[in-house]
Amino acid sequence: MPAKRPLALAFLMVILSSLLFPQTLAEIAQKERERRAGLKGKKAVVITNADLAKLRKKPALETPPGPPAPETEEVAAPENILPAPVEPPEQPVMGIPASTDSAPPGLKALQERLEKAQEYVELLALKMGALWQQFYSQEDMTTKDAVQQAIAETYIKLEKAQEDEIQARRDLEIFLGQQKKEPGSSIWIR
Q1: d(Cα 116, Cα 137) in Å, to the nearest integer?
Q2: Cα distance between residue 98 and residue 59, in whole Å
Q3: pTM, full prediction
Q4: What is the C-alpha separation between 183 and 188, in angstroms, rounded?
Q5: Which domains does the chain have, with CATH numbers?
Q6: Does the first or last residue of the chain, that is N or C, have fewer Cβ atoms within 10 Å of its Cβ?
Q7: Whole-angstrom Cα distance, residue 9 to residue 28?
Q8: What is the pLDDT of residue 98?
Q9: Which residues, other chains included, contact 59 with Cβ-Cβ below 8 Å and sequence gap of 6+?
């Protein structure tokens, strides 16, 4: 019985399509002649293997050259190098620059905390995208359940990391606001 139903449905579709779109063999031949007559004046380009061998291959994706690789001495002895904290490009922090030696130690700690929080948020967002892609690409429900559980756990971690990032940004802004107020508070203008 189950095999008869799809067979009957297919047969019914063939009959309906022949009734809805009646086209004789003569009409089809006439359309093909018209198509060929329209192409008669055009020249066709034939690409041979020899033509393909002559082509210069270009990379599909061109990337700008990266920064030069660090020397092996720098990699071998990382304690000799003091890493300078880099401010995130998306929200520049106003105030005391991180590269000056007179920067308070609290500023560097807050900047490092903010950078770590931003990197962790980016990592979790990337993981979240990969998990969703894996979820949609699988057909087995048992593995989808495991991926869905991982998505839920990652989402909770992502929310917490975003809250930590916001708190780190607020702490840094408060610290910079206090640093701006301290030097200017001793000057009185009449």
Answers
A1: 32
A2: 40
A3: 0.41
A4: 11
A5: 104-181 (1.20.58)
A6: C
A7: 27
A8: 47
A9: none
